[in-house]
Every structure is written in C-alpha cells, then in structure tokens.
Amino acid sequence: MVTFVMRRMNKNALTVLSYVFLYGCISSQPNDIDNICSMFEEKRNWYSSAQAAEKRWGIPIAVNMAVIYQESSFKARARPNRSKILWVLPGRRPSSAYGYAQALDSTWNDYKKFSGNKNASRNNFSDAIDFVGWYNSNSRRINSIDYFDAKNFYLAYHEGNSGFARQSYREKQWLINAANRVQRNSEIFSSQLKNCENELSKGWLWRLLS
Question: At a CB cut-off of 8 Å and minimum separation 6, what does 209 contact?
Fold first, then answer.
C-alpha cells in the first residue's frame, strides 16, 4: 500500500514538474515592446532568432518584428477574442489564429511542410519569426513587394497573397490603418536597431569584460 501511494505521489510530482517545464519554456512578454533594443537586450535569444530569420528569408528584422507587434504584442499564447452570445456568454473564436504570429492552423501546417521546420510551435518565438519571414518572402516573390514595404507585407499577411493581388483590403479602412501602424513601427524599429546592433552582436564574454 505504501509503495502504491509513493508511486502515485511520484507520478503526480512528475506531472506538475512537466507543466512547470512546459510553461517555463514559453517566454513572457518583454517589458518594453515599443523599443526593439530593449526587447533584444532582455531576450538575447530573440535577437539571434531574428537574425537567423532575416538571413534565411531576406526580410529585414524590423519588418518581421513590426508584424509580430501588430499581431500579438509579443504574447506567446495570444488568440483572437471570443465572440459574445447574448452580449455575455463566451462564444467561438473567429479563427484558429494563435501565438506570436497569429498564424492560422492551415497556414502554419503549410509553413512546417515547406520550410522543413516540422516540429515548429506557434508559441515559440524563434519558430514564429521564422514563419513571418517565410510568409513575407513568399509575398515578395508573388507580389513583388519591396523589402522595406512593411505596410504591403502586412496587407498580404492579413488578406493572403491572392487577396492582396485582388486588393481586397481597399474597403477595409481599419486594416489599412493597422498596416500603416506596421509601417511606422517598422521604421521606428529599424532606426532603434541601428543604435544597438553593434552591442547586441557582441558575445557574452566581450560584454562581461567591456
């Protein structure tokens, strides 16, 4: 009987530890999401991931970060708000969008298939920014969007590349306003990054000795 109880306790303890480990791996929202230098200083692995996505897909860090800012405000488990039933009861969510990049189930599955990142998770920042870079690179290839044109990248991101080509966004002023915010944030992030890239690129030992 004692042995059974001990085994049950050990199993429960392992379950608790697994949850702690799982949620511990999901990064918290940065303290200052309006400053890209502050975010990358706080989360050095994010800078490495952002660099890797830029190198792989050719889309500037500032553009990809501005898209994520607009989509989730850098919240790992962000989801669209539920609709309301009778103005009170929670209803269904409007879409399957989830994570930093607010990627839909279907689009995320396409990314995992075509990028080779088969174990990607939407609440992992490294995977999310790689996804945004991948999507934006497709938008550039399909719709010839300029590398620094964050506004049109976001419109294509939201409407899909076929919708963007049809200009389905033209009657959606709220979406155009959001895309303008993405452009402004991209320009702000780009300017900020110029002031801290050298420091961010230093290794931990160099920073310790300097």
Answer: none
